[in-house]
């Protein structure tokens, strides 16, 4: 290969910039030495990493395959066209755009394609699991659009579809968004479609978190129901950091123009090509097994934590994440996050629905299983992790046990 391939050379990095080389090594050691339970993270494959570190990063390719504003795009055209075809086939979508630099960028493009500033949008409230791009006042969505939030029900912490419908009839939004950052349950996309149709609104599904579960056939797909599906490629899907938009053919031009030239310039062709690789990996039978195991693990982890006196919001999970109410233990999310961090267990504090605490304190934590499942862990390990989290939260020393567990299921194992 040496005469045809030129790629990542760690010795060159160490010679040029030893400080950044140390960061790279320390981060790898952190990944290998701890449990990664951040629900939005995963461990990409060596194939994806190889493309990300390739010479494709150099190429300017404003435009789309076959229609570029720069010369020399024949090679990257092949990568993007392959990626688009793979996304369409995997998700049964009429059109795919792989250029958004991130999930937030994909959402911005969807707003730009479908709405004008000042239009009304109905989306899940941020404190109940929605995302900043769903109408937060500190985000473009809340500043430039008239956003109305729907909560989850107080008693069972689930979406109340009748309330969503009432809000839609009252506010007549031009777009309804479903899909969240911290909602552990399945979403009834057909129900949302019916509500959107009743008020002639677009339905945008923000599948950033769960698109990988859809890819693996482990949960129902939003694609048949939505006008536009926005997603990230780096969460359960296990690709490079980035965004993706799927839509019907009728909206294809508007979506493509909203990504480039409206909200972005040149695409990151190394990332676009890495998305193509991840989509190929996600179409394999082994990935379907992985997606199913991610959910089985999240259920086992939530049940284990419940056994330790930590209440799973909504009683459990149907997805890759669980939201855990810690109030019975008289500890805040922030304290739990810090104590787990000290033990090598990385998770995040998270507001729970109707949280009495401020967001930076929070009454809960969010745990997710994409990374530990990539490492090969299954239900018995989830039960062990639940016990380790509980012990860490109580302030007991568990770092040694965490190291033993990660040694048995290494992240990025050495050959
Ligand atoms: C529902 C949802 N949408 C959008 C995003 C934004 O993705 P990114 O961080 O890639 O901009 C996230 C990120 O966590 C998310 O959870």
From TrEMBL:
Q: Which InterPro entries match?
A: PyrdxlP-dep_Trfase (IPR015424), PyrdxlP-dep_Trfase_major (IPR015421), PyrdxlP-dep_Trfase_small (IPR015422), Ser_HO-MeTrfase (IPR001085), Ser_HO-MeTrfase-like (IPR049943), SHMT-like_dom (IPR039429)
Give the GO cellular component terms, alphabetically: cytosol
- Residues annotated with N6-(pyridoxal phosphate)lysine modification: 235
Residues of the Serine hydroxymethyltransferase-like domain = 13-389
Q: Which cofactor does it need?
A: pyridoxal 5'-phosphate
- Read off the Gene3D superfamilies from this record: Aspartate Aminotransferase, domain 1 (3.90.1150.10), Type I PLP-dependent aspartate aminotransferase-like (Major domain) (3.40.640.10)
Q: Name one GO molecular function term.
A: pyridoxal phosphate binding
State the pathway, as annotated in the record: One-carbon metabolism; tetrahydrofolate interconversion; Amino-acid biosynthesis; glycine biosynthesis; glycine from L-serine: step 1/1
Its keywords, alphabetically, are: Amino-acid biosynthesis, Cytoplasm, One-carbon metabolism, Pyridoxal phosphate, Transferase
Give me the residues that bind (6S)-5,6,7,8-tetrahydrofolate, please.
126, 130-132, 249
Question: Could you tell me where this protein is found in the cell?
Answer: Cytoplasm
Q: Which GO terms describe its biological process?
A: glycine biosynthetic process from serine; tetrahydrofolate interconversion
So which domain of life are we looking at? Answer: Bacteria
What sort of enzyme, by top EC class, is this?
A: transferase
Keyword Cytoplasm, does the record have it?
yes
Reaction catalyzed: (6R)-5,10-methylene-5,6,7,8-tetrahydrofolate + glycine + H2O = (6S)-5,6,7,8-tetrahydrofolate + L-serine
Q: What's its EC? A: 2.1.2.1
Q: Name one Pfam family in it.
A: SHMT
- Return the similarity comment: Belongs to the SHMT family.
Q: How does it assemble?
A: Homodimer.
Give the function comment from the record.
Catalyzes the reversible interconversion of serine and glycine with tetrahydrofolate (THF) serving as the one-carbon carrier. This reaction serves as the major source of one-carbon groups required for the biosynthesis of purines, thymidylate, methionine, and other important biomolecules. Also exhibits THF-independent aldolase activity toward beta-hydroxyamino acids, producing glycine and aldehydes, via a retro-aldol mechanism. Thus, is able to catalyze the cleavage of L-allo-threonine.
Can you name this protein?
Serine hydroxymethyltransferase
Q: What is the lineage of its organism?
A: Bacteria, Bacillati, Actinomycetota, Actinomycetes, Micromonosporales
């Amino acid at each position: 290969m040496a005469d045809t391939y030129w790629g990542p050379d760690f010795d060159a990095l160490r010679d040029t910039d030893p400080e950044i080389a140390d960061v790279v090594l320390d981060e790898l050691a952190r990944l290998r030495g701890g449990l990664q339970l951040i629900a939005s993270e995963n461990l990409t494959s060596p194939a994806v990493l190889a493309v990300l570190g390739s010479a494709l990063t150099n190429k300017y390719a404003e435009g789309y395959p076959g229609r570029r504003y720069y010369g020399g795009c024949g090679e990257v055209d092949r990568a993007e066209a392959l990626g688009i075809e793979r996304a369409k086939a995997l998700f049964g979508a009429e059109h795919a755009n792989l250029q958004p630099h991130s999930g937030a960028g994909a959402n911005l493009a969807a707003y730009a394609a479908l709405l004008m500033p000042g239009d009304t949008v109905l989306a899940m409230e941020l404190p109940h699991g929605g995302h900043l791009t769903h109408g937060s006042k500190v985000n473009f969505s809340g500043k430039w659009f008239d956003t109305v939030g729907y909560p989850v029900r107080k008693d069972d912490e689930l979406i109340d579809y009748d309330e969503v419908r009432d809000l839609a009839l009252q506010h007549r939004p031009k777009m309804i968004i479903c899909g969240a950052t911290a909602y552990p349950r399945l979403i009834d996309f057909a129900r949302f479609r019916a509500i959107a149709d009743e008020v002639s609104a677009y339905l945008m599904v923000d599948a950033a978190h769960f698109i990988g579960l859809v890819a693996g056939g482990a949960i129902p797909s939003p694609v048949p129901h939505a006008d536009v599906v926005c997603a990230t490629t780096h969460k359960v899907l296990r690709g490079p950091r980035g965004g993706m938009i799927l839509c019907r053919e009728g909206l294809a031009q508007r979506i493509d123009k909203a990504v480039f030239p409206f909200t972005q310039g040149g695409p990151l062709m190394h990332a676009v090509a890495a998305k193509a690789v991840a989509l190929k990996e996600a179409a394999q039978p082994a990935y379907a097994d992985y997606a199913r195991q991610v959910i089985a693990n999240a259920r086992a982890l939530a049940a284990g934590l419940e056994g330790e006196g930590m209440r799973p919001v909504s009683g459990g999970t149907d997805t890759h994440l669980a939201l855990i109410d810690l109030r019975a233990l008289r500890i805040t999310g922030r304290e739990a996050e810090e104590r787990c961090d000290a033990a090598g267990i990385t998770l995040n504090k998270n507001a729970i629905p109707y949280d009495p605490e401020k967001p930076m304190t929070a009454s809960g934590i969010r745990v997710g299983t994409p990374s530990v499942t990539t490492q090969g862990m299954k239900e018995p390990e989830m039960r062990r992790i639940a016990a380790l989290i509980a012990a860490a939260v109580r302030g007991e020393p568990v770092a040694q046990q965490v190291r033993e567990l990660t040694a048995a299921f290494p992240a990025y194992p050495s050959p």
